[in-house]
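A quick aside before the break. I want you to see a complete sequence-to-structure record at least once, exactly as it would be stored in a machine-readable document. Don't worry about memorizing anything.
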Amino acid sequence: MTILSILRLLPRQGGVQLGGKVLLDGVGLLQLPEKTMSAQYRGRKIARVSRPASSTDRRCARSW
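That is the input. The structure line, written in tokens, reads:
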């Protein structure tokens, strides 16, 4: 959920930012306007790679 929050892909209702900051190359991502986030960062400098939960479980490891 954290990366979804940073990329602003979760609905804002019910969420609260309690404190802290997220920096990428010295830029505070939480303070960026939505337009800048989507134009310059989301999908270009920051991306999310979806994998099944079993891919992190060593018992389910595959050998290609």
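Two observations worth writing down. The longest helix spans residues 34-41. The CA atoms of residues 24 and 45 lie 9 Å apart. We'll return to this after the break.
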